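Input record, target 12 of the design panel.
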């Protein structure tokens, strides 16, 4: 069982957070995961097909003046309601690492919105049949901490981040159908 690579064009690339919330300068963050490499397959344990456990994430420190970090995970190979599918967000992160298997935000950080609403935990891929999908896990270094109400919606989060991004980076993982998964619930 093998799925085709992602399509050449990403339908939701114009809605990607990195596209719409640029960093003030050219500073870049290097983002990695212990679970998969850049453009590598996301393990099924980190998808909704199986455990839906967080894969772990680490990034290089932001430039001087960095006060907090935001993580935004989007599927740009699917568009829902005119937007790339929002899988997960977390904001006001003070460190540069989120442990694999994490089920609650670290002290001081907040779960943000996803496609299901505000204050949502990690929601891994559940890639539909067809070609693989790209999941962009983007990290932003901010010169501020965000108010709690920034987590009310994706629009509120990105508006609060605007003009505060000092550096950014991403890790792209590929999602695919788990051939051994039971059918989705009705």
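The sequence produced for target 12 reads:
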């Amino acid at each position: 069982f093998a799925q085709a690579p992602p399509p050449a064009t990403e339908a939701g690339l114009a809605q990607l957070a990195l596209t719409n919330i640029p960093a003030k300068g050219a500073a870049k963050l290097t983002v990695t995961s212990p679970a998969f490499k850049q453009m590598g397959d996301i393990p099924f344990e980190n998808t909704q097909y199986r455990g839906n456990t967080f894969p772990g994430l680490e990034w290089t420190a932001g430039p001087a003046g960095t006060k907090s970090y935001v993580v935004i995970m989007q599927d740009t190979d699917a568009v829902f309601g005119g937007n790339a599918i929002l899988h997960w967000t977390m904001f006001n992160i003070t460190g540069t690492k989120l442990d694999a298997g994490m089920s609650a935000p670290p002290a001081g950080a907040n779960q943000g919105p996803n496609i299901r609403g505000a204050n949502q935990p990690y929601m891994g891929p559940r890639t539909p049949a067809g070609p693989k999908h790209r999941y962009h896990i983007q990290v932003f270094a901010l010169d501020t901490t965000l108010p709690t109400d920034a987590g009310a919606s994706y629009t509120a989060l990105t508006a609060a981040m605007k003009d505060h991004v000092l550096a950014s980076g991403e890790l792209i993982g590929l999602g695919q159908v788990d051939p051994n998964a039971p059918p989705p619930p009705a």
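The chain is about 5% helix and 30% strand.
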